[in-house]
Design brief:
By secondary structure, the protein is an alpha+beta fold. Helix content is 27%, strand content 40%. The protein has one domain: Nucleoside Triphosphate Pyrophosphohydrolase, CATH 3.90.79. Strands 1, 2, 3, 4, 5, 6, 7 and 8 form an eight-stranded mixed β-sheet that branches. A three-stranded antiparallel β-sheet has the order 9-10-11. The protein starts with a helix and ends with a helix.
Length: 203
């Protein structure tokens, strides 16, 4: 079942071009959304970011990733390098790139930033142990893909930053709240791969 689902995702994404956000002079970053077979489902690798002063995404659930270095030949390389540095998983050796996903313009406190993040979807050959860089990562969480497809795990989370307050859509699972940019990336992926009810109804 998991392999069949992976083939379906692969086939769907091979038929589409990712949406590109072209912002002149924007900072560029990349993240890795990594899937691995787990029983009849696929697990998705997420991290809980370390609590850091001045980091607008401090403590958030996220995908491994970061800013593109001058020495990174491509954004794909950025995503792979950051995954190895942050959680110790070598996607070059044990993973396979499935597709580049839609670019996302970063936001903080409800305002768009001059930064564009590119997610890349990888398949990991099997669940691998992780070794986290505690300077950047507080924890690693594997979440079943079914969670993101199930309305029972969809909700909202209240966010307060100074004078800014709002309720944001979120995935809520076993004490983990996935919202913001990572939530948007997952929803974009589900629509692109036709894995959510709305996308299937439009297919």
């Amino acid at each position: 079942m998991a392999r069949k689902l992976l083939r379906s995702i692969d086939d769907r994404l091979s038929e589409r071009d990712p949406q590109i956000v072209d912002l002149e002079h924007a900072r560029r970053a990349a993240v890795a959304m990594t899937l691995t077979p787990s029983g009849d489902d696929l697990d998705v690798l997420l991290i809980r970011r370390a609590e850091l002063d001045g980091d607008p995404w401090s403590g958030h659930m996220a995908f491994p990733g970061g800013h593109r270095d001058a020495h990174d030949p491509t954004l794909e390389h950025t995503a792979m390098r950051e995954t190895l540095e942050e959680v110790g998983i070598d996607l070059a050796r044990h993973g396979r790139l499935i597709s580049r996903l839609d670019d996302v313009q970063a936001q903080a406190r409800g305002k768009a930033l001059d930064m564009v993040v590119t997610p890349f979807l990888f398949e990991l050959d099997r669940p691998r142990p992780t070794t986290i860089d505690t300077r950047e990562v507080a924890d690693v969480v594997w979440i079943p893909l079914r969670v993101f497809r199930d309305d029972r795990y969809h909700g909202t989370t209240p966010i307060a930053r100074g004078d800014f307050r709002a309720d944001f859509p979120a995935f809520l699972y076993e004490g983990n709240t996935v919202w913001g940019m990572t939530y948007r990336m997952i929803r974009d992926f589900l629509r692109a791969a036709l894995l959510d009810e709305e996308a299937r109804s439009k297919a």
